[in-house]
Amino acid sequence: MVKDNVRSLHSLLACVETVMLTTIDDHYRLISRPMTLQIDNDLQSQGTLHLFAPANSRAITHIAARAAVNVSFASLTRSVSLSGTADFTTDRATVERAWHDRLAPWFPHGAAQVALIEVTIHEARLWNSPGAVAETRWHVG
């Protein structure tokens, strides 16, 4: 059942380029920012998402202090909210393996000083629109 949920989530996110990553700051406030989503086989096999941020960014500071995050997106036909935990690496070889050309506008200096964020999804919620009242909840992890 969980594998089916992960496969469904993978197909849902395959056409999404930008998501909102929400972290918790040092005053326990929620902070959201747009992020370019890296869809790869880890989502389908392990239920994880990859995002990129400057290594010295507030997003990385927040994740280092509190791993709980939310990733969300909305379109005209659906909204998705993913809750989970995040970790990151600044290992240059790991970042460069995951790097892709769509990131160049966000990081004009390339993979240098960039962190790769890995979000392990625990739960996904989906709302279809228009007119849908009920939400669909999937347990992923």
List keywords for this structure.
141 residues; alpha+beta; seven-stranded antiparallel beta sheet; 23% helix
Principal-axis shape: globular
- Percentage of residues assigned to helices: 10-25%
Order of helices and strands: HEEHEHEEHEE
Strand content: 35-45%
Distance between the termini: 11 Å
Unreliable segments of 5+ consecutive residues: none
The main β sheet shows up as:
7 strands, antiparallel
Structural class: alpha+beta
Q: Can you count the beta strands?
A: 7
In DSSP terms, counting alpha (H) and pi (I) runs of 4 or more, how many helices?
A: 4
The overall pLDDT, averaged over residues, is 84
Radius of gyration: 15 Å
Oligomer: single chain
Description:
Helix content is 23%, strand content 42%. The protein has helices at 2-13, 41-46, 58-65, 92-98, and strands spanning 18-24, 30-36, 48-54, 68-74, 78-89, 114-128, 136-139. It has 141 residues and is an alpha+beta fold. A hairpin with a 5-residue loop joins strand 1 and strand 2 (30-36). Strands 1, 2, 3, 4, 5, 6 and 7 form a seven-stranded antiparallel sheet that branches. The mean pLDDT is 84.
